[in-house]
């Protein structure tokens, strides 16, 4: 009897998980960066509505940060979300952490309850850092019609004297 009940519970959870419909759509825009260098390889794939930004935000002796893309995800089960994807390279000899600070969309600040981004990068390594803005009941979800502005904040738990900030600005 316990085996049948366990199987039925597993089957019902599997069916519930399969019910959600998820679609992705890239948000394209122009990036205003303090660095004049632009990454090569921007491509437009019309089949997947995939438009990558590939804009270098900063490339100095400590880090290289590239804004790769901004993807809007529509999910009936979990709600809408947007992922801002960065490629981070750590050029230092100790681990660093990168976080999103002062995030605003369409000239309005985003409540920190609906966003998250914190990525550790080991010395000499690269990592993908994703800023996720998730729709939650009771919080205003932005439309992403005008712009996205934020600060990339780099620091180290190993060296408390190291920190740097770089502005990111995307116009849609």
From TrEMBL:
Residues 1-17 form the signal peptide. It comes from the Bacteria. PROSITE patterns: PROKAR_LIPOPROTEIN. The keyword Signal applies. The keyword Signal applies. Residues 32-45 have a biased composition (Acidic residues). Keywords: Signal. Residues 26-50 are annotated as: Disordered. This is ABC-type Fe3+-hydroxamate transport system substrate-binding protein. It comes from Ureibacillus thermosphaericus.
């Amino acid at each position: 009897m316990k085996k049948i009940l366990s199987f039925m519970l597993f089957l019902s959870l599997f069916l519930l998980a399969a019910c959600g419909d998820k679609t992705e759509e890239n948000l394209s825009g122009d990036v205003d960066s303090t660095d004049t260098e632009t990454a090569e390889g921007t491509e437009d794939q019309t089949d997947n509505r995939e438009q990558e930004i590939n804009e270098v935000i900063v490339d100095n002796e400590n880090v290289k940060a590239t804004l790769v893309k901004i993807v809007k995800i529509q999910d009936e089960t979990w709600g809408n979300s947007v992922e801002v994807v960065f490629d981070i390279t750590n050029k230092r000899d100790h681990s660093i952490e990168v976080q999103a600070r002062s995030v605003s969309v369409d000239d309005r600040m985003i409540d920190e309850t609906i966003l998250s981004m914190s990525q550790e990068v080991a010395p000499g390594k690269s990592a993908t850092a994703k800023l996720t803005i998730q729709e939650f009941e009771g919080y205003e979800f932005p439309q992403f019609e005008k712009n996205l502005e934020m600060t990339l904040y780099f620091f180290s738990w190993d060296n408390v004297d190291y920190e740097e900030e770089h502005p990111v600005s995307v116009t849609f």
